[in-house]
Amino acid sequence: MLANDISHGHGWGADVCLLIAVICAVAAAVVYVLAARPHRTTTDSGRVVPVAPWAPVLAATALAFIALGLLIL
Fold first, then answer.
1. What one-character-per-residue DSSP string does 45-69 give?
2. Which of 3, 18, 25, 36 could bond to 62 as cystine, CB 3.0-4.6 Å?
3. Do residues 65 and 20 lie in contact, with contact meaning Cβ atoms separated by under 8 Å?
4. pLDDT tens digits along 30-57
5. How far apart are CA 55 and CA 28, in angstroms?
């Protein structure tokens, strides 16, 4: 049934969710690579503040959309 729905295009909602999941996963990879570089910001007082880690948030969002897409199917 799952392969039949996918091959005949009846799961458009799942397609949208899986497309969003792929976009979030790619964004997570890009953010992770950029965060791996030694990039820190300094405030006016000289205090070093690390860049916020958004990669785990985007990866969790991608997994959630994958689960939602499979649930819709």
1. T--EEEPP--HHHHHHHHHHHHHHH
2. 25
3. yes
4. 877 776 665 555 566 766 655 556 778 8
5. 4
